[in-house]
Amino acid sequence: xxxxxxxxxxxxxxxxxxxxxxxxxxxxxxxxxxxxxxxxxxxxxxxxxxxxxxxxxxxxxxxxxxxxxxxxxxxxxxxxxxxxxxxxxxxxxxxxxxxxxxxxxxxxxxxxxxxxxxxxxxxxxxxxxxxxxxxxxxxxxxxxxxxxxxxxxxxxxxxxxxxxxxxxxxxxxxxxxxxxxxxx
Length: 184
Description:
This protein is an alpha/beta fold. The chain has helices at residues 45-51, 64-76, 88-99, 105-109, 126-138, 140-144, 149-163, 174-179; strands spanning 2-10, 18-25, 31-36, 61-62, 81-84, 118-119. The model has no long low-confidence stretch (mean pLDDT 91).
């Protein structure tokens, strides 16, 4: 099994207009990042002021068909992927991209076979939420880029690694863990 940590950003209040999507593997080596091109026509003020300025554009910009093709290829290359997210809408948007957005059937089929990742959801409540906040508090460069899908996926990965005991307690998490000794 390969754990993949997911984050997405979206433009609208209902979470239906994808802006960007990122996946990072448990070991941090395998990464997928894509930004939608064109960006959604309508975006909230928050998205325009906090998310759009963080976008990298360039090689990461992908029309829907290219994003679906790239994501399907990425997931197909990972052994037994289990996708972990901290918000259910992230999983819904991942499924939307894998399915081919709203592309006509012929264009969606041309994106390659649809992989079948195992989906799961992890809440930000409790230790996970505190560790994500601790991660950003301990990493000012990452905090300055919060709401960039790849940065947020990395924060989720690091929090999960600490909670599951896969890494020793990093210095940025010690304050939180002092208050929750059961996580040691």
